[in-house]
Each structure stands twice: as C-alpha cells, then as structure tokens.
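note to self — DONT lose this again. spent like an hour looking for the file last time. sequence + predicted structure for the chain T wanted, 429 res
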Amino acid sequence: MSRIVDVVVVGSGMAGLVAALVAARQGRSVRLLTSGMGSLAISGGSVDFLGYAEGRFAANPWQSLALLPEEHPYRLLGVENVRAAFDFFSQTMEEQHWPMHAATAEDGSPRNTQLPTIMGTLKPTYLLPSGLDAQAMATARRVLVLSVQGLRDCRPALVISQLRRYRSWADKEFAHSLLPSPFGETHRAVTALDLARLADKPQSRQWLLDALAAHAGSCDLVLLPPLCGSKANPEVWRAINAAAGCPVVEMLSIPPGVGGLRLRDALLRALNQHDFELVENTTVLRAETAGKTCTTLVADASGQERRHTAHAFVGATGGILGGGIWLEPGKATESAFGIDIAVPQDVAQWSEPEIFGRHLFSHLGVRVDRAMRPVDAAAAVRWNNVFFAGRSLGGYDFATEKSGHGVAVATGWQAGRMAAAAAAGGENQ
C-alpha cells in the first residue's frame, strides 16, 4: 500500500464504484477500499431514480425533480448533471454488454416502471436490464407466477392475491406453479442466489430451461424470483426467454441481491480495464489532514494498520446501516473522516409519531456543496480534495423516495470527476 495513487475511494456500493470508474476513465490511478461487498449485494438489478415526490408517484421522474427540496442531492447537482451521470452509467452498461433502459410513455418520454416484488407489491424503478420487457407487463393477459421448491421467500399464491389488488393487474388471468428444485431434498432453505449461480453456466442451467419449456404456450408472461444468473450475462436471459416462449420478468426480492450482483459484476469489469486496485476487508480508522487538504487514510486490514496516501479522496461508505454514519445519544458522526453531523439536541425530534413520516435518521448525512465537497455549518469547505457520494450524503430519504441507486449514480459521477480534477491539480503542485 506504499504506492501513492491519484484517487482513493472508500466504499464499494453503487456510488463508490461509479466514482471510481469516472476517475479511472479520466486517466487517474484509483484504489478502492471496502470492508465488504457493498450495498449492491443486497439490492435489485434495476436503478431507482425518483419513484415518489411529495408523497405522490412520479410517473415522469424528470418532471418531478423541481418538487424536491433545495438541499436534495439532485437539486444540488442540477438536471443537466444528473442527465450526464445517467448517460455515463447507461453507456458503461452498454459497453459491458448489459444494456439498461427506461420505459417510455406514449409520447416517447421516459417514465418509471412499476415492478412486481415477491410480496406482490409494486415498486417504481427507472432503468431496467434490456432483457426485461416492461411493456409485456401491461399487455399480457395470461400470467404465470413461478417459484422453486425449497425457496421459502417466494409464495406464488401470495404474489397473485396481492397483485390482484392493483387496477393494472386485476383483470389478468393468473396461474402459478412450483418448479422442482435442482438440489433435490436439502437440509436447508434454498436462496435465489443458490439458483442464480446454477444459471451462470450452460450445463447447470438446463434444469431451469427444461422446467420453463414445460409451461411454454400456456401464458403471455412469466414472473420469476431473481434466479436468471448472478453475472451480467445477456446469454442467460436470451436462453430463459426462449425456453419460456414469452417474456420473463424477475420479481424484486429480499437479499441476497442477485440483480445487484449483476450490476456490480459489470462495473468491476469496466474498472479492471483501467489502473485500478480493489482492497477488500479494510476498515478506515481515521483521516490525516493538513489545513484544507486530506493526505492519507489510515485503515485496518486483518489487525494491521495500513496507510493509503492519495491526491484526492471519495467517501461513499453508506448511511447508518452501512456503517458510514455512527450514532450516539445526541450525536452523529461520519465514520471515515470523522465529520460531526448536526442533529437536534431535543430527543423528541429524533423520531416521528407516523411510521412513514419524515424521520431524522432517514435523511441524516454529510452536508456538501455542488462539487460534493463537505462543508461546515457556515457552508465553508472543509477539505478541497475530499468528496462524498451516495448514502453518505444528507438531504434525501432514499427509502420513501425510491431514489437510492439514482442518487448514487448521480453523486458518484460528480464526486468521481471532481476527485479526478483535484488529483490532477495535486500532481502539478
């Protein structure tokens, strides 16, 4: 770890990977530090942009951006930067042979798609893998909901009973079935990831193709748990749709995030084409700074301290659940750089009587300027070469907005390019 690199990124979720890739594509050497797999390991394979604004469904998320508060990351960046970030991400996925697209309305404008989940609910999301035919969900009359024996997380009868509550699904003809498990009798519950890994290889995915072929011709649409491979491989989708004889849509599921692992696979493939190194099982302990500059991050790796010196840094360690923000009574702290986050001292303000209300914890995070540099209470920049992205940021609630991956892509893109510029300036000093 003695080599000085241009940019050190902390965190391997969507924001960290996008930031690292943007910096790497601008010719910077990049080192990514991560303590685990990152949030993509527990997420779906689509990209939420903005599902709800002011509590209402945002059919066209671009039109709804103006409804967001000024401190929201999208508002800080501005529409043009958000578009540029999404264009960058879409181009990257295209280059990695895992293209993603948004559904379109009748006038051709992009719109959110309501994807079914394994609980039979509908979740708005924006970018979808091109192998997933969103239009088929609207036009299909006969829908077959499938699961696999031993997969306890998905009950087709429950999915159907819940979907029938929605007007767009109420008049469809439903059928359901359980596919035989390729593992036979097993002592433990099977996960979607177990099944998806089988689908990665032609010889081991045949069980799924044969099972789908047995139902071919009986429906216009098949709903499946996320088991169509754990890698970003379009060949798997083509084979599965061909066997079913109709469009196949994966339902969004609980972790492990099979779809998210596909996105991670594609982004890491892109990163490995550049001057990039991934350092895993590493936890940042503290930052060393001098005036307005951060020089080094000190991290723990297998019980030993390692120093990571760079010209610029990106923090993308996530929020409270990801360990990026530490909470104590009356105090909140960003974990990698030790930034104190302003919180009310009145304990009553830390929670809301409404369970789905605007809770303090849901929008806690680092305050930044338009360049994603951290600022203090007086809006003064703390360090000129440190940038933040993703759930580390405050000012938005990804869960109620359904904006998690979208904010990660947009702010990761901005943080990555700003870090690359700062690193170029640092080299010349």
